[in-house]
Amino acid sequence: MFGAWIALSLERRGIKTLVLERGDELLGRASYNNQARVHNGYHYPRSILTGIRSRMNAGRFLAEFADCVDTDFRKYYAISAVRSNVTAAQFEAFCDRIGARWERTDDEVARLFDPERVEAVYRTEEWAFDARKLRERMLGELTRAGVEVLVGHEARAVRAAAPGADGARLEVEAIRRADDAALVVEADFAFNCTYSGLNDLMRRSSLPLVPLKQELAEIALVEVPDELRHVGVTVMCGPFFSCMPFPDRGLHSFSHVRYTPNHSWHDLETKIDNQAYMDRVRPTSRFSWMQADARHSLPIVDRFDYVDSLWELKTVLPASEYNDSRPILFQRDAGLPGLICVLGGKIDNVYDVERELDALQQTTSWQDSRTPSSR
Question: Is 249 exposed, middle or buried (0-12, 13-18, 19+ CB in 10 A)?
């Protein structure tokens, strides 16, 4: 989503843009394999800035992508009475501070929780996006804007352009994955928006790596009982869980802070090719572990029926582990003039990129940017 949005934003600024997408379709990996939550700030009581930015972005996302968002369910947040990093009073104060609506409730959904383990339950306002509709919408927007999109093409390396390369600063070497046909793109700027593959490209290009942590993450897809059919619940804040409608499949996503991460590593400490790893890994679901723990605070979880799992690498900045913040990485001149590394952790935070593009535009002669050429 971040790469597609940047391409669209640049094209609207009059900058001709080419998108190289490794997969067979846009928004088919991390932008699909997640909880599909449109955040409204509640999830980040230990990061005021992330909560505020989520609130500011949510309204625009709802307005701009209304046809891609499911708003037809009730969302609840429950504060655990044990092992929680925040109390009910702290959660309420946080919501008031960022302007997020909340209502302490004892309705039929709240009564599904174990009162001995849950301090308070709140009705809140949060939504879920339909990942497939979002993909179709973005592809349509890119097409109408005149952005060229090459799916099935993997960027393999980026380097300084050879002298005489039509004045371009960079060359991006790519392959068409279907037949390994080579492609070289000359351009003034290259945005590395490959999420878990960000350091794969940097390593192959002999450029400095970005300090990133990778987590092999599982989102279980489940059938829920009728009592939760049009309901989303999140128990927080600590080693707890969340269950949200997943509109594209007509199921619910089910994740657990402790068991969703299968295992992890730091890019600076390993030589794992993250994208190649995901091509071959065949992990075993931990749904039963999630279910066994979650039932303590929400007994109805025992009636969840497992259907499938979404597997993806979750890529985070190590500093975010301490307060659950989700800042955007926007690193200019990342080892080469004109190479920009971008990492966003939440789809609805994509609008924060525009401020960085505005700042880049103020210090760059955009009019000197040429149409990307390829050979």
Answer: middle
Give, as one character, the DSSP assignment of residue 334.
Answer: S
How far apart are alpha carbons 343 and 353 in whole angstroms?
10
- Across the strands, what pairs with 158? 172
CA distances from 360 to 41, 209, 218, 324 (A): 28, 22, 36, 28
Q: Which of 286, 285, 302 is nearest to 294 (CA)?
A: 302
pLDDT of residue 12: 93
Q: What is the pLDDT of residue 163?
A: 80
Q: Peptide bond preceding 237: is omega within 30 degrees of 0, i.e. cis?
A: yes
Question: How far is 17 from 91, CA to CA, in rounded Å?
Answer: 43
In DSSP notation, 83-115 reads S-SS-HHHHHHHHHHHT---EE--STTGGGS-T
Question: What is the reported pLDDT for 256?
Answer: 98
Write down the pTM of the prediction: 0.93
